[in-house]
Design a protein that fits this description.
With 399 residues, the protein is of the alpha+beta class. The chain is built from twelve helices and nine strands. Strand 7 and strand 8 form a beta hairpin. The two termini are 23 Å apart.
Length: 399
């Protein structure tokens, strides 16, 4: 088995930000400007006279929603002002999307409720449009903020503003990122305030437990995998992992909390090494706190393993499980349990996403299909080591 820290020289990895995004998903900025202006004209007051300017489709547009940056001016109560905005647009079915559904209105509602019930810094959301007619897909509009985001390509674990920062600044970023989770998980009555996230089939009049939330989450991951492989190859490794997770699922105590879902620092915009905006809520769910903690820890490990594969030092002292768990405990009194399970579950969930991403690149002729479908998982070696129980000892980390 290949070690997750194998430093054997390899061909450069492809640009996954590019191959994950088929060319047809890019939209013409001028056409977007006209359509956005027409849409604003239809929803604002009759004397608003909106004007859309500076439309940009970022080159690093993501693997799921399409992101469009734009500025617009309009009049409100006689005052004309400029607004810097972001539109998140659901992809079309022909783009071989990463997820089976893109409920943009749900993301809008979650972000609005998080802003109302917590101190978590989320961008202001303006509107949600459930019609596909204006832009070709459902979308919502939120404010555009300024700040620094740890990059995925190239990974922030080497040659980035974060990897080059002072140790105390890295620790500040780590701890304040954990505080996002402590604040989020402290929202009272989450299954009432975020009823739209309650798993199907559960009694809306009974408080949702963390165990019920985890059981539903794992069931949904199995369903997601079946959908993701419905038009392509299957993965024996992922199926082994799903079986392991179902057989080894813990029984977390207490009520479910609101989980961000995609709780990684690459989805946070920072100023002075502290969160200024928490982004990407499409994976929000109700479940145990450890879902977010495990994802935050593992998604850093994923990028740090890439640094190791490139023979670079990476950030081995950043986001260490013991430090994350201790910081969370100091702010909540909750001692996270079964972190090895939740980090493995995070690696497995990420494997399904990566498998779908590669299915997409193959479908668009941007990569050949490998002889072994498990090679479509970029972190195959790490997931195998986790399932074998050798991953953490292999990198010298104790859980």
């Amino acid at each position: 088995m290949e070690s997750p820290l194998d430093t054997t020289p390899r061909e450069p990895e492809p640009d996954y930000s590019e191959i994950a995004r088929p060319g047809e998903s890019r939209k013409d900025p001028e056409q977007l400007r006209v359509r956005l202006q027409e849409w604003l004209d239809s929803i604002l007051e009759s004397d608003a006279a909106p004007e859309v300017t500076a439309v940009e489709v970022p080159a690093a547009n993501g693997m799921s929603n399409e992101t469009v940056l734009f500025s617009a001016t309009w009049s409100d109560a006689g005052q004309r002002s400029e607004h810097h905005l972001v539109a998140r647009i659901a992809p079309s079915a022909s783009a071989v999307p990463i997820f089976p559904t893109y409920d943009l209105d749900r993301q809008y509602q979650v972000m609005r409720a998080v802003a109302e019930h917590s101190s978590v810094p989320v961008p202001r959301v303006y509107w949600s449009e459930t019609s596909t007619e204006p832009l070709g897909g459902e979308f919502f509009v939120m404010e555009r903020l300024d700040g620094d985001v740890p990059p995925d390509v190239m990974p922030y674990t080497f040659g980035s503003w974060l990897s080059e920062a002072a140790t105390e600044d890295q620790r500040r970023l780590q701890d304040t990122s954990v505080h996002v989770l402590t604040d989020l998980h402290a929202i009272p009555e989450p299954d009432r305030r975020f009823a739209l996230l309650r798993p199907a089939g559960t009694d809306p009049h009974t408080p949702l437990t963390a165990t019920d939330g985890l059981r539903a989450h794992i069931r949904e991951q199995r369903n997601y995998y079946e959908w993701a492989t419905g038009d392509g190859p299957r993965s024996p490794l992922i199926e082994r992992g799903l079986d392991w997770v179902e057989a080894n699922m813990p029984a977390p105590a207490g009520p479910a909390v609101l989980c961000w879902g995609d709780s990684r620092i690459g989805n946070i915009m920072y100023r002075d090494f502290a969160p200024a905006a928490v982004l990407d809520w499409e994976m929000a769910a109700l479940g145990p706190r450890e879902l977010d903690l495990g994802w935050m820890i593992y998604l850093h490990r994923f990028l740090d393993d890439l640094a190791s594969l490139a023979g670079l030092p990476g950030l081995p002292d950043f986001m260490r499980p013991a430090d994350v768990v201790a910081e969370y405990r100091d702010h909540t009194g909750h001692d996270a349990q079964d972190i090895e399970f939740y980090t493995l579950y995070a690696a497995l969930r990420h494997a399904v996403v990566m498998f779908r991403v590669q299915t997409r690149t193959i479908a668009f002729g941007q990569a050949p299909a490998p002889a072994d479908p498990d090679d479509m998982i970029l972190h195959r070696a790490s997931l195998e080591a986790m399932l074998d129980g050798t991953y953490w000892s292999g990198i010298g980390v104790q859980l």
